[in-house]
Structures are given as structure tokens and as C-alpha cells.
Write a structure and sequence with these properties.
Number of domains: 2
Largest sheet: none
Order of helices and strands: HHHHHHH
Number of strands: 0
Length: about 160
């Protein structure tokens, strides 16, 4: 090693060359530090005649590696994505089956007596409470319960097998 290693000017010069070569003033010191660690390890088994050139070249290669790693997404096992790959939307045949069942329910609703259909729709579609329906229609809550039960029983039988 030469006396240059001990001079601040040596390190300032190497740092300036790394900045120019990599185009990154912000990362130059980190790159120089990493390059120095590699130089230190390399010198254990090899002679280095131009340490400044070694440091600049190594720092430039490290900068290229960092740039590549920043743009490249390493392959990951599918398990690491967790639930993000799960598609909970129904399959097309399931959608078709549900639509057909809905048509069947609509046809069944049309077959109900008008008052039973009205009570059922108020309860299940409009989400009204039984006592609210009773008050709105001027009937007892027991009568509302009977209409709902009658509609549910009929629609269950009507859609069975669909």
C-alpha cells in the first residue's frame, strides 16, 4: 500500500470519481464503503496495484447491481401472496344457476295470494320488522307471522330441486 491511503485527498478523489461514474452523489459514500469492504477481502488473497481504480470499478458494479435489483421483482412462492390470489367471485355456471333460481322464486311469488306476497316482500325485501308490518297493514303480528311462514313454506317447495 502506498501513503495515499492515509491522505484525505485520496479518499476525496476516489469519492468524486465514484460520483461521476455512477451519477449518484447520494449513494456514493455507501458504494465506496461497500467497495472498500470488498477490496479488503480481495486483498487477503490477491495483490492490488491500483486500489483507487479497484474501488471505483467495484462501486460502479455495485451501483449497477442495486439498480437492477430495484427494477427486478424476485420470484416469490405463491403462498407468500396469501389471500390476494383468491378470487371469491362466483363461477359463470354458479351465476347462471342463481339467476335461474331467482326467476323461479319470482314466478313463485306471483303464485302467492296478494296479501301473503305483500307481507313477505315487506319483511324479506324491505326488511321491515313483523310488528311494523302489522301496524302498517292493520293486522295482528300473529297474522303477519302466518303469512311469512306460508310464503317461506310455499317458496321452499316451489324452488326445491332448482
Amino acid at each position: 500500500m502506498t501513503a495515499d491511503w492515509n491522505e484525505k485527498g485520496f479518499w476525496d478523489g476516489v469519492l468524486a470519481r465514484i460520483r461521476r461514474r455512477t451519477g449518484s452523489a447520494a449513494d456514493a459514500e455507501d458504494l465506496l464503503h461497500s467497495a472498500y469492504l470488498r477490496l479488503f477481502a480481495y486483498r487477503a488473497e490477491h495483490e492490488v496495484r491500483e486500489p483507487a481504480a479497484f474501488l471505483v470499478q467495484t462501486a460502479a458494479r455495485l451501483a449497477v447491481d442495486r439498480h437492477r435489483k430495484g427494477k427486478f421483482i424476485a420470484p416469490q412462492p405463491l403462498e407468500s401472496f396469501g389471500d390476494s390470489l383468491d378470487d371469491n367471485s362466483p363461477l359463470q355456471d354458479e351465476v347462471l344457476a342463481v339467476r335461474e333460481r331467482l326467476r323461479r322464486v319470482q314466478a313463485g311469488l306471483e303464485r302467492l295470494p296478494p296479501r301473503t306476497r305483500q307481507v313477505f316482500v315487506m319483511h324479506k325485501v324491505q326488511e321491515m320488522k313483523l310488528r311494523e308490518i302489522a301496524a302498517a297493514l292493520g293486522i295482528t303480528q300473529s297474522a303477519v307471522e302466518k303469512h311469512v311462514a306460508k310464503a317461506v313454506l310455499f317458496l321452499t317447495e316451489w324452488t326445491q330441486g332448482w
